[in-house]
């Protein structure tokens, strides 16, 4: 059975990462991660490029409008309403997914857009994005190799610490399994490294 975009949900590590954000910021993180999954599903390889562009155009049109004008029938838009002041970052993610699938940039624009969306999430969280935030986001997304020491991030960005740490564990081929993964998330969530 084909997965529809309404069936998309966060992976268990992503759900745990979101829970490490302060309660008032959890919806921001959830919306960001779900949107990225939704856009990836819309731009899934093997689909007709015209259909991909039509699906992404719908999202692009939404993010060009103020959140007050968004349709009420799309649950993800309800979660993303708090992003109203940072809609441009969400729109850039749409453009990035389109460039990756129907363009020829190999994902460069998407990588930059995702890093900037994390910075926008930081601003919405009351955190001024700096080089440490950008570096952590780039390392999480596999755009940059990990630095000698993990960046130190404020508590509102603890989900980024977890996502980065789990991505680096996976890239290093560390043995996984649910229990080890859970313990790694606990350590990252509590200690930040």
From TrEMBL:
SUPFAM superfamilies: Terpenoid synthases (SSF48576). It comes from the Bacteria. InterPro entries: Isoprenoid_synthase_dom_sf. This is Phytoene synthase. It comes from Novosphingobium fuchskuhlense.
């Amino acid at each position: 059975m084909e997965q529809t975009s309404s069936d998309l949900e966060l992976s268990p590590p992503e759900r745990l990462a979101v829970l490490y954000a302060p309660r008032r910021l959890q919806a921001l993180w959830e919306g960001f991660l779900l949107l990225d999954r939704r856009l990836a599903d819309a731009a899934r390889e093997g689909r007709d490029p015209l259909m991909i562009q039509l699906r992404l155009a719908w999202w692009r049109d939404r993010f060009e409008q103020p959140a007050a004008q968004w349709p009420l029938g799309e649950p993800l838009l309800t979660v993303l309403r708090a992003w109203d002041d940072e809609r441009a970052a969400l729109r850039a993610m749409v453009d990035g997914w389109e460039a990756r699938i129907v363009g020829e940039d190999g994902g460069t624009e998407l990588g930059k857009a995702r890093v900037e969306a994390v910075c926008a999430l930081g601003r919405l969280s009351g955190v001024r994005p700096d080089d440490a935030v950008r570096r952590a986001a780039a390392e999480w997304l596999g755009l940059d190799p990990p630095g000698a020491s993990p960046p130190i991030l404020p508590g509102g960005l603890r989900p980024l610490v977890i996502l980065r740490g789990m991505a680096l564990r996976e890239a290093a081929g560390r043995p996984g399994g649910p229990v080890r993964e859970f313990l790694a998330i606990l350590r990252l969530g509590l200690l930040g490294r």
